[in-house]
Amino acid sequence: MPFVDIRPRTPADLPACVEALAAVQAADRYPVNWPDDPGAWLTPAGMTAAWLAIEAGAVLGHVAITRDQEVSRLFVTPAARGRGVAARLLESARSSTPLPLKLEVSSEGRAAIGLYERLGWRRVASSRATWLNAAGEPALLHHYVSP
Question: Which whole-number Å values give the CA distances from 119 to 43, 99, 100, in the listed order?
Fold first, then answer.
């Protein structure tokens, strides 16, 4: 099995990231609504860094952090799940800063919630999103803080 490398994202990586994101969106509806400019969506306002999981030249996953210490745009392609890729991406983000990180996850993301809780992330609040979930209702968001 080839080695999964975690490395910083470069501008040249965006087309491959968009391709990986399309596979995630087809499988999981993440993001809920496909953005008009997926490359820009993968580069949220205030982004300070982003990392990729790469294997044999293919993007398996992605994570970004913003200046307010928020984990953003975390995904792993369906074919790469169950291999610890998301945990490694989160660890790369966590090790980049001495401050705790935070993230939001929709209540529909049960697998993601399970991962965060297994990794020691702590739920600190819940709120309603301004966007709609698969049922057409404001999504219930759970807010987590890193260990």
Answer: 25, 17, 14
Tokens in use for 65?
């952090």
- Please give the model's pTM, rounded to 2 decimal places: 0.93
Closest of 145, 142, 134 to residue 71, by C-alpha: 145
Report how far apart, in Å, the C-alpha atoms of 71 and of each of 55, 101, 137, 143 are: 22, 7, 24, 11
Domain span including residue 46 = 5-145
For residue 16, give the CATH number of its domain.
3.40.630.30
Count how many residues are written for the chain: 147
Number of compact structural domains in the chain: 1
| pLDDT tens readout for residues 91-137 | 999 999 999 999 999 999 899 999 999 999 999 999 999 988 888 89
